[in-house]
C-alpha cells in the first residue's frame, strides 16, 4: 500500500478549546505496531469528557478518537497475526503491561501501565494512526465501514456493563439511551431480556428509538419504573440517576455505571441500598470483552444507527453529542 508523507488530523492542542484541523507527518509503526489507514472513527462521550477537560492529563497535543475502523497499511517487524489489507478495529484499550498485579489477575482493564487510544496515545480523528497489534480486533466484513465504529467502544463498554449483571436478570433498566444503549439493547433482546429505557425527560425521539429496537417500555428518567427491575445500567453521565435507579431495582439488584465520568452523586438514604442492592462502575475493557462482544454482535446481527460527519466536522459532531441532537452514534468518515 502506498503511503503518503502527510495526513490530515483534528488535533486537540489544549483542553476546553475546539479541535484544530492540521496537516501532520504520518507516524511510523514500531516493531509491535501497525500503521492503519482509517476508514471511520466513532465519536464517543469520552471524547467530549477529554475535550471539555473533565478527564485530566491527556497527552497533548492529542488526536482523540477510540472507535477506529481501518485497514492495515504497514506493519512493524514483530507483527505476526495481522497483514497488510486486513480490516481491523482499534478500541480504547491501546496497551497493557502484562506484568502488574491487575494484568496477572486477568483484569487488564485496570492495568497500572495501560495506554488508552485517543487519550494517552493518538487516536482516530485522522487519516492514519498507529496501534499495537495485540490490541486490534479483526472485524467481520459487514462492519468494515462506518457501521462498525460504534461497536468498538459504545458496544464494548455496553457489553462489559451488561456482562456484570446476573445472567438470570429478566427486567433490565437502561438510563440514557444513546450509542451504548442502542447496541446493548439489541444484544439483550437477542437473549430474550426485557429492556426498560429511561431517557432525558421529554426526549420522545429517543424513547421511540428504544421501542423500535425492541425495548419493552420507554419513558422519562424521572418516572418510576413500571416494574421492579432486576438490574440497571446507567450510561448517562448524571449522578442523580444512581439513587433513582436504586429505587427502581429489586432486592439483590445491581446498578452498573457504564460511563467514565459522572456528575456528583447526591446523598441518599441507606434504605434504598439495603437488601443487598449494589452499585458498580465499569472501567475500560479487556481484549476478552472485545472478542466476545464482536462475536455476539455478528451472531445477533446488531445494527448500528449512525450519523455521519466528515473529519473536518469533528467539532460539530462533538457539539451535537453534547447537546443530545441525534439518536444512535456519531461517526467521522475519512
Ligand atoms: Zn498491567
Ligand atoms: Zn468511548
What does this structure look like?
With 334 residues, the chain is α/β, with parallel strands linked by helices. The chain has two domains: 6-152 and 304-333, Medium-chain alcohol dehydrogenases, catalytic domain (Quinone Oxidoreductase, Chain A, domain 1, Alpha-Beta Complex); 157-281, Rossmann fold (3-Layer(aba) Sandwich), CATH 3.40.50.720. The protein is built from eight helices and 17 strands. It has helices spanning 45-51, 101-104, 154-163, 179-190, 204-212, 241-248, 287-299, 314-322, and strands spanning 6-11, 20-25, 33-43, 68-75, 87-90, 93-95, 115-116, 128-132, 137-138, 171-175, 194-199, 217-220, 229-234, 249-257, 278-281, 306-310, 329-333. Helix 4 links the parallel strand 10 (171-175) and strand 11. Helix 3 packs across helix 4 (179-190) and helix 3 (154-163) crosses helix 7. The longest helix has 13 residues, at 287-299. The mean pLDDT is 96. The site of one zinc ion (ZN) has 9 residues, from helix 2. The site of one zinc ion has 9 residues, from helix 2.
The name CATH uses for the topology of the largest domain is Quinone Oxidoreductase, Chain A, domain 1
Would you report the number of β strands?
Answer: 17
CATH superfamily membership of the largest domain: Medium-chain alcohol dehydrogenases, catalytic domain
**Given this structure, which CATH class of the largest domain is correct?**
Alpha Beta
Bound molecules: zinc ion
Share in helix: 10-25%
What's the alpha carbon Rg, rounded to whole Å? 20 Å
Shape: globular
* Helix segment tally: 8
Structural class estimated from helices and strands: alpha/beta
CATH architecture of the largest domain: Alpha-Beta Complex
Head-to-tail CA distance between termini? 17 Å
Largest sheet: 7 strands, mixed
Low-confidence stretches: none
β-strand amount? 25-35%
Mean of the pLDDT scores? 96
H/E order of the elements? EEEHEEEHEEEHEHEHEEHEEHEHE
Tally of domains: 2
